[in-house]
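Case study 2.
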Amino acid sequence: MFYLKASDREQLETALIEAGWLVIGDEGEREENFYTRGHSLDIIGSYQRQVGDTVIDEDGVPHAEFENVDGYHANLLLHGSEIPDSLQPLFMDGKDGRPDSPASPVRVFA
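Prediction:
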């Protein structure tokens, strides 16, 4: 599995359009080719992670503290497809100063 991280949704969608995996029509209709014989793409998007301990709010209700995780995320499985050039810069693989693959991914394929 490959973990992808874009700066925002627009950057990821631009790479998917270039790869031919996303087509947006003149009236905004979307054709998503995310699950094919050659690849499976799971768009996670933006998410938050828990930080610190559970805190008690002013009403006495316990809740966890969360922070936003930078970027717009997706997971990719290849089943014979080649990796599109447009997605290469989004790979989280430790190259070019990007972080290694996440130690505890927020979501994985079953």
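The chain has one helix and seven strands.
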